[in-house]
Amino acid sequence: MDDHGHRFGSQTKKSYVHDCIISAKKQNILMKNLLISLIISASSLTVAAQSNLKEGSNSFALYTKTGEFKNLENARKFADAAFKTKKDSASVNINLLRALVYSALAVADSTRQQQYKQDPIDEAIGSLKLLDAKKARRDFPAEMDYVRQNLAGAISYKGALALKEDKFDSAYKSYLRIDSLGFKNNDLKYNLAVLSGKNKDYMNSIKYYDELIKSENPKPNYFLELAHIYELGGTKQDVLNVLEKGRAIFPENKQILFRLIDVYSANGSYDAILNVITDAIRLEPENVGLNYIAGYSYENANDLKKAKEYYNNVLRLDPNNYESNLALGLINLEALLKEPTNQDIQDLAIEHLLKANEIKPYDVNALKALAKYYTLIDDVSQLDRVNLLLNQLTVK
After folding, report:
1. CA 15 to CA 20: how far, in whole Å?
2. To the nearest 10°, the Cα dihedral for 188, 192, 195, 197?
């Protein structure tokens, strides 16, 4: 997990190495068929190329059987020797051998202990492109899969190393290369979504996340992270839409629900909050922030009875909560304006306003409310005291 809470796909940490290993039985069958195919179709090559192709194929077959690196090195030597003339370099057979050999080297020599003119990944991809252009997959589907799986494993290894060093640009480029090989799975797509976002490629990040949330089994964090990307490179409505979509799919997910309430609150959409706040408080009944937002939303909807209920919930959980004390003081002060002789309302108003002032002695809002209260009850001495402090605080 990175410092922003992203958990890269499991394939990042485990690499694609497991996907790259073909069982010994399958490898032997693959190599047996490969040797027959290459020998039969090698007649169009130069004599030297035919010889090198045969020896290289034999060496590679030994490598797949024994796992001994020296056989892979011999296969490389013969594959390079066959890759000399323009005609031979365009051969499907020679390029298939080179793709097999160099993709295997990319995995087996992951720390690059051998010397190379060009990285084995690039060598294999170069041959793979020619094979794709000549539609070689029709004749060599298993071999082409082997090459791609090896390449995915090798590139994933490089990407994982880049991630460890927080080189997000390099990691992003690595996973883009895996994507270009035709691998389509949610782990890869998730890595691309996260890394494109970290590289401020918000358009592509949105594209990948959008594909993820439309997949068969989306995860709640996809919606939350896409909402964050929209905050960076989209609109407020985009943020709202993806969170509401996530809420519809995961109605019991607290993180999505609470984030949605945050967005509603920031947008001043208090009517929308009232539609979901009960569910949120059911999930966390002693959450001070949720109870306060509920009170504030009901106050905005002019349902003062419900507003006072939730503000009092806040004070039950946190008696020194400034906002709820001030809110209850102001609600009762407004009621006192309509019923100036109601002693119960008067007592509640001054109790909460004094508490708010005690918590924040120099807050102008509480002081102004107290000044209004003392004016209403005609307490001149207290009004003078409050006005003096207000004047000191507001003088520029």
Report:
1. 10
2. -140
* Domain of residue 367, residue span: 325-396
- Nearest alpha carbon to residue 97 among 145, 54, 148, 139: 54
* Residue that is last in its domain, among 116, 146, 178: 178
* Model confidence pLDDT, tens digit, residues 163-202: 999 999 999 999 999 999 988 889 999 999 999 999 999 9
| Domain assignment of residue 128, yes or no | yes
Residues in the chain with pLDDT values less than 50: 1, 3-5, 9-26, 28-29, 36, 39-40, 42-43
Whether 78 maps to a domain, the answer reads: yes
H/E/C letters for each residue in 275-300? Answer: HHHHHHHHHCCCCHHHHHHHHHHHHH
Spell 172-189 as b/e; 16+ CB within 10 A means b.
Answer: bbbbbbbbeeebeebbbb
Whether the predicted model's global pTM rises above the 0.85 cut = no
Tell which of 178, 194, 212 closes a domain: 178
Q: What is the total count of domains within the chain?
A: 2
